[in-house]
Amino acid sequence: MKSDRLGSWLKNIYKTQDEEISCSECFDSVSHFVEVELSGADAAAEMPKLKQHLDQCLACRQEYETLRELGRLENEGGLPSTEDLQNLIP
After folding, report:
1. For a Cys staple, 44 with which of 28, 51, 75, 76, CB 3.0–4.6 Å?
2. Which residue has the higher pLDDT, 5 or 59?
């Protein structure tokens, strides 16, 4: 087993909380998290359970990163091109 993979697993175990949100709850709230973040506010402080989930769940983190990138592109003054959208698809 690679030491970096083991380290990642140990980090996730260490960060596990007594109460965590599910992927469904994360998907329901991640767009709001991105909006808060793009407004300049501290989304992680406002929604710590969601942030903790994003730190541990690859699927939810990919959804978050896609939404964040779309929001960034939109804030820069326009809708993303078809090529931009295709580049966001994992």
Report:
1. 51
2. 59
Q: How far apart are CA 74 and CA 51, in angstroms?
A: 23
Q: How far apart are CA 29 and CA 53, in angstroms?
A: 11
Mean pLDDT for all residues in the chain: 84
Instruction: Round to whole Å and give the CA distance between 25 and 1.
Output: 32
Separation of alpha carbons 86 and 90, rounded Å? 9
pLDDT at 12 over 80: no
Tokens standing for 17? 């909380």
The answer to whether 80 and 73 have CB atoms below 8 angstroms apart is: yes
Angstrom distance (rounded) from CA 10 to CA 77: 42
